Amino acid sequence: MSGRLAVVGLGPGDARWLTAEAEAELACAQALYGYLHYLDRVPVRLGQARHPSDNREEDARAAAALHHAAQGAQVALVSGGDPGVFAMAAAVCAQIEAGPAPWRRIDVTVVPGVTAMLAVAARAGAPLGQDFCALSLSDNLKPWDVIERRLDAAAGAGFAIALYNPVSRARPWQLGAAFERLRRQLPATTPVVFGRAVGRGDEDVTVTTLADANAVTADMATLVIVGSAQTRVIPRPGRCALVYTPRAAETVRA
Ligand code: SAH
What is the pTM of this model? Predict the structure, then answer.
């Protein structure tokens, strides 16, 4: 009998942002796989095997989970945020495409989760209220010049831009270079939101402008939203400013 693999999005961190479907999949799994810090968020249940792995071992983790499911087990593979956004669902698909024929018979379910950009946007107001795009600044899986071209195209097309993976210890300069690139096309006053560890105890959200945006504000747990030329900030006495992009597009200049 071929088993079942649920690729489960845990959301950004707050347990209230875990969907009921995700909770049910976690409860009925016989075995759990995932990056160790994500697995730490899942309550321990008697009789459920846990297979934590390191951050960088995504392909091996996906293959191990598939191998286990192919033996007939109910397996859950967890991902932070949404599993389809720069995360494990694509790694699982790639392993199925390249893997042994029996893996194609496994019942695979992808369970969506609240992705980081939506959590950060919600904290700030509505910076993604009009057309937007998401980019990962990690150049582990794509060359930097592709990232630069996509930044240019996104800013030129008037999208607000959500930047995942802005920095890491191995990638210290990319976010600063991305801000430089965006300053060529966007007004200095363009709002920028830094959302760090949103939904967790050490959450921090700050709003600044593209002129003042400093890459050292971000770490691996930060998602950065750079507005479009239309994004606005509403200051409020005694409350955080609201950042929003109006739903109606201004006529794009030729
Ligand atoms: N699948 C995840 C993204 C994985 S890439 C999702 O859908 O959210 C990892 C990046 O996501 C981090 O570098 C950071 O940019 C962002 N991120 C994940 N959790 C976050 C959180 N709680 N607050 C802010 N950014 C977060």
Answer: 0.96
